[in-house]
Design a protein that fits this description.
By secondary structure, the chain is mainly β. It contains two helices and 16 strands. It is about 10% helix and about 45% strand.
């Protein structure tokens, strides 16, 4: 899951590889492909119970000086993910709770507003075109993983993430609804906090079926104690599920001071290997993204 959030120096550690992306102002795009979906009725109660249980466990173990709880709140001008927008060109608010135990295990809960542009889609009902309602507006991502040192210079981690949406997701064939929630499994290897390689596997993304991989390479270079340059290139082989494969990249500068982080970034993507009659998510045209984060 998921750059993603800003490199989490605001919380004295880098969770940028595990959290969904920072991203940008851009023109409206046409709605993406139709996807069957579901209304997740118990989602609020489930997420509330998970958050309560998570915070209770944090309180019980916070006395361990090597364990760390962190929280981050972010405003970003667009939520871009794997080469397409999850906010339809709009700014969103995001938040993350994270706990890292001294044993190497970590877990947390990510939240973001979303807008997939499906409010412009219509469905046929009794011969009339009816605007699609009860759309997903929120994304919740509980995650759990384990991080470990290979040597003084190399670290690695493995992670499971569950993407959960609060309501319906696009329009399905014959208006049949099914869940858009899905799992992602990933592994990363990191060299001196300067170079990171990540491989993820998405299972049944957005309820479209199939399993597809994501590859990312991320570089970071400290310019001064306050400024850092970073860049990322990624490739998603999602043709069978999302009608296209996506190649995406970005580059930008982050500013970090105490609990504050600012990030300004250029990002772009292109899509390839179109599936027959597929339309998929639009790729990202050259776009600038700004985000501001406060961490604890």
């Amino acid at each position: 899951m998921i750059s993603r959030l800003v490199f989490d120096k605001t919380c004295n550690k880098d969770r940028s590889l595990m959290l969904p992306s920072l991203n940008s102002i851009q023109q409206k795009r046409r709605p993406p492909f139709p996807v069957n979906s579901t209304s997740s009725q118990p989602i609020y109660g489930t997420v509330f119970l998970m958050a309560v249980g998570f915070l209770a466990s944090v309180h019980a173990t916070q006395a361990d000086s090597k364990s760390k709880f962190s929280a981050t709140a972010t405003f970003v001008t667009e939520y871009i993910w794997h080469g397409y927008s999850k906010s339809d060109g709009h700014p969103v608010f995001q938040a993350n709770l994270d706990y890292h135990h001294s044993s190497g295990f970590f877990g947390g809960l990510w939240f973001s507003q979303v807008d997939f542009g499906d409010d412009r889609l219509v469905k046929l009902e009794n011969g009339l075109q009816i605007k699609f309602k009860h759309l997903s507006e929120f994304e919740f991502i509980p995650y759990f993983g384990y991080t470990f040192s290979i040597s003084d210079d190399w670290q690695a981690d493995v992670q499971w993430s569950r993407y959960i949406y609060n309501s319906q997701f696009f329009i399905g064939v014959n208006n049949v609804s099914q869940s858009a929630d899905y799992n992602e499994f990933s592994g990363t290897i990191n060299f001196r906090d300067m170079l990171t390689a990540r491989i993820g596997v998405t299972d049944n993304g957005y309820g479209r079926g199939g399993i597809y991989p994501v590859y990312e390479l991320i570089g970071r270079y400290p310019i001064t104690d306050l400024f850092e340059f970073s860049t990322k290139v990624g490739y998603v082989r999602s043709k069978q599920a999302l009608d296209f494969n996506y190649l995406y990249w970005d580059a930008g500068v982050g500013f970090y001071y105490r609990n504050l982080a600012l990030d300004f970034r250029y990002t772009q993507s292109t899509r390839s290997y179109q599936k027959d009659n597929g339309n998929g998510f639009d790729s990202i045209k050259p776009t600038f993204v700004f985000s501001i984060s406060l961490g604890y």
